[in-house]
Amino acid sequence: MAYLNVDEIEAALEALAAPHPGVSELILLPNRTSEGRQSHALRIGPPDAQGANTVVIVGGLHAREWVPPDALVNLAADLLEAHSSGTGLRYGGQRFSADDIREVVEGVQLVLFPCVNPDGRHHSQTAEPMWRKNRRRVNSGSPASCVGVDINRNFDALWDFRRHFAPDSNVSASDNPCDPQVYVGPAAASEAETRNVVALLDRYPRARWFVDVHSYVPAIFYNWGFDVNQTSNPTMSFRNPSFDGQRGRSSDTYREFIPTDDLRTLQDLGGQVKRAIATASGTAYDLQQSFALYPTSGTSDDYAYSRHFVQGANSKILGFTIECGRSFQPPFAEAEDIIREVCAGLVALCVAATAPSA
Amino acid sequence: MADDVHRIELRAKSLDELRSFLDGSDMDLGCRPVVRRDGADYVVEVYAPMPQVDRLRSARSASAVTMTVVENASEVGRARQSEVGSGNRFAARMAPRGLGIKE
Question: Cα separations (Å) of A184 from A133, A148, A162, A345?
Fold first, then answer.
């Protein structure tokens, strides 16, 4: 076995969707990448008209993180095969019954977008393995070394970090187009890859959960990445411009507001993912808030969760990032173990999403 | 040709020690700037070419943070490129099979 290349990811999604027309749909994303690639997502679950809640899971935003796209394709293959054959699924010690699988596949919409940044992945797999960003040359006259935008700093969630964060916060972002890692791009959602994720969230008005699978720590993170969470002062939030220039320090008085119920639900769901992973492989993933060493701006998970605060008509989407494994590009035999544990955690989340109380 | 990037483990007894070590260093902090606990230690892995590592080591020699070069990540990545699929295994609409056990 071997890591999927970008052509294989697209072909695999197509091949998975074709035999399961009742419970899957290939979704063409609207924006071509700068190298001309078209991307697809795969919906598993009931058709849109049935009004099921939606779980959106994405991967491959960062090019050098090779395991997540493979994990999401694997998840799709496992769920569709188990559902069609009426079996359960087992990853290591973590078992899901046939009823669990049926309820997931027939009860929620699971939307998988395994490879958000195919240009970057192709470059990492064939040229510079440590490449992280996409491959767009933002300024046509810039040197060859100044290529690419960090997709996971390009979302419209406190994207303008110089305005929103304290100058000494060391926020993980850069407005230097030649920064090799965390260039935020010329504008929020300037990148086709970012807009494809946004389009998916726009398309599913009942999206309730969002997971962005990255590597590595290993850990499960939940909102927010802007600053330390607090639950008592709703006015102290990313929406309040009077706190511009103050966010992101770990030891001052600014804290990011999160409703108590949301925090509890994030921790509860994250705990279920963590336990499923531990049962599958014995690996202890940390569960913690995204803000730890330094703040982040423009990330996908915070964007997903921020949407309903910004516009009340949007559904509330709880955001997670899973940082799987212990290296960017483990030997594939080791990657297979990571794929199993990631899938165990994600199926556990989907099972939780089918609960009547969810 | 860019310098090879090395994977470096930084280990400290507190988050503040790690922060004071890293503040202003412009290091590649991996996927996102987070730490993991390892017993009583806080651990973060960073990526940098060796000249940058050497500069950091000499500039912060009095720090309580220990630095360990784990591997040449660029070299490992180049070797791993041989483990990427060639061609297209699913071009004939043969669907992949997952690793989960169906039972």
Answer: 10, 9, 11, 30
